[in-house]
Structure to design on (554 residues):
């Protein structure tokens, strides 16, 4: 069982489906309870999945602090299939309309929403193997992919993880429109619990990978690259890592090896590998203990070491890292194991909701290496930004940015005010009188995208209070938060901002920022160790030196 995500939970999981969903609900509640993340699980009215996207008063629209779940069986969409039938009335046409409605819903609401495309009733497969058995399902899986705030999953993948699973219940389908067995509903419940867990658990961001007997078979220091084994076992690991790279995980090599030998394998076996050297943004290939190398990688990437997952075949190495760095998730892929089961069964590697920033994160870290070279010897922020050609744009957020804002506020650990529990982000943004702000950063080496955010409210005395803020640590010492706060103060026509802050033991960089630019205004409470539960800092607008920027409040 994965680590419990802790006491912070999302309030409600709302389930809507094209079929009777009641058998799923108690199984989902039990699975969530078992993982230490109990939720209130409720069902939308029967057969009203599309209405959940279209109505402003639907359960989906009202669930601002939870997770929306839509289960789709395209066979339930009635429509013409005969020659001359209206295309919009066919399942494929309804799939296109559903995709359009889902995209509009995601643009208006910040609540994470997952759609699970479920299989239709068992029947004969199409004669043409190239023709998909369910073209409407294919359109859903394609059309809903990579939409901010949405996730789409093929239920067949969840069912396939359970050998010998009996999926269909044709008798219950005919009597009560309950198309699946209890075992199949249990598999759906486990999958949906993983989705909820991925939103609540401490995020893992880096996968550090061993080389010999993990990426390929044999020791590259003892064999020629041509003699190494690249069998389906190792290709499966490589393809899994490539998928995680594309989802936004940072990949790093961490191998007790000779660097030149490793580089030769990537160069000479490039045509045989399913992953390339360029997919790994950092490397520690030496004979140091891997725990020490992981700490070094964390420092280079400006991430906490508890953001790491280590994949290694050596039991001694795995034990050494687990003992020295208990915050690291260690995956042991020994020769007798099924690496696909080990990797696929790791809940810490789940990422169902990806943003544009996630998908370009690895490119950003590669550009960071070039930035460090260009900035060598410069400690002054203004001179650094001048040399790098920095442009910061701070402005009010657009509704389409809500998924990225939610991601930054709920999953940033170090440069964050930590004043909004992860399950309350959407609810906060939905409150009246609340404004969301974002800052983007680009320079001559690339575009960071949306790198910082803040949520503000007006106080009764006309002031502006920053309810929460967060910034990726990749933008430290670039003047981004200074530009964001300056824009907020100017827009509000105030001389100072009141900024809420809660110490977590991990958000020291944000605390240092507030201490540098402001002073403590008040404290709400303190615990027995005199660690404040929450503080309010008064930050004068004059404290911010404008960074290279353009634009502003639209």
């Amino acid at each position: 069982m994965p680590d419990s995500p802790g006491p912070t939970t999302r309030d409600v999981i709302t389930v809507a489906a094209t079929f009777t969903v009641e058998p799923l609900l108690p199984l989902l509640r039990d699975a969530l309870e078992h993982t230490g993340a109990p939720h209130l699980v409720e069902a939308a009215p029967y057969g009203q999945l599309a209405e959940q996207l279209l109505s402003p008063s639907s359960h989906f629209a009202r669930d601002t602090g939870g997770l929306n779940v839509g289960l789709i069986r395209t066979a339930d969409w009635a429509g013409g299939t005969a020659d001359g039938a209206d295309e919009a009335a066919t399942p494929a046409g309804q799939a296109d309309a559903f995709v359009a409605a889902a995209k509009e819903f995601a643009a208006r609401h910040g609540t994470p929403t997952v759609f699970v495309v479920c299989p239709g009733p068992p029947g004969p497969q199409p004669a043409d193997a190239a023709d998909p058995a369910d073209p409407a399902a294919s359109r859903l899986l394609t059309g809903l992919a990579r939409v901010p705030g949405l996730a789409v999953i093929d239920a067949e993948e969840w069912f396939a993880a359970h050998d010998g699973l009996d999926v269909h219940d044709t008798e219950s389908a005919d009597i009560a429109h309950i198309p699946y067995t209890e075992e199949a509903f249990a598999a759906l419940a486990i999958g949906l619990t993983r989705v909820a867990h991925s939103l609540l658990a401490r995020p893992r961001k880096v996968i550090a990978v061993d080389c010999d007997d993990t990426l390929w078979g044999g020791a590259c220091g003892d064999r020629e690259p041509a003699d190494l084994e690249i069998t389906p076992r190792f290709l499966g690991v490589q393809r899994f890592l490539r998928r995680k790279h594309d989802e936004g995980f940072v990949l790093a090599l961490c191998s007790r090896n000779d660097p030149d030998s490793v580089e030769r394998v990537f160069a000479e076996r490039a045509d045989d590998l399913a992953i390339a050297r360029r997919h790994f943004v950092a490397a520690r290939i030496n004979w140091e203990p891997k725990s020490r190398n992981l700490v070094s990688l964390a420092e280079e990437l400006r991430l906490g070491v508890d953001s790491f997952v280590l994949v290694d075949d050596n039991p001694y190495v795995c034990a050494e890292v687990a003992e020295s760095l208990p915050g690291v998730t260690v995956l042991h892929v020994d020769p007798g194991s099924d690496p696909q089961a080990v990797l696929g069964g790791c809940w810490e590697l789940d990422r169902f909701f990806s943003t544009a920033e996630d998908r370009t994160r690895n490119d950003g870290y590669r550009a960071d290496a070039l930035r460090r070279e260009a900035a060598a010897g410069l400690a002054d922020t203004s001179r650094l930004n001048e040399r790098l050609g920095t442009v910061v744009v701070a402005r009010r957020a657009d509704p389409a940015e809500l998924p990225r804002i939610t991601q930054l506020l709920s999953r940033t650990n170090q440069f964050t005010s930590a004043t909004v529990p992860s399950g309350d982000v959407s609810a906060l943004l939905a409150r009246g009188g609340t404004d969301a702000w974002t800052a983007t950063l680009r320079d001559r080496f690339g575009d960071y995208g949306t790198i910082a955010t803040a949520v503000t409210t007006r106080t009764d005395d006309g002031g502006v209070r920053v309810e929460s803020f967060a910034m990726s640590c990749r933008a430290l010492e670039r003047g981004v938060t200074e530009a964001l706060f300056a824009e907020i103060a100017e827009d509000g026509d105030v001389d100072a901002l009141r900024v809420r802050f809660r110490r977590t033991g991990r958000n020291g960089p944000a605390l240092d920022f507030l201490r540098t630019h402001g002073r403590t205004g008040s404290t709400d409470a303190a615990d027995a160790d005199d660690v404040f539960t929450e503080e309010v800092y008064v930050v004068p607008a004059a404290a911010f030196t404008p960074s290279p920027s353009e634009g502003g409040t639209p």
Remarks:
- Residues 182-200 form the longest helix (19 residues).
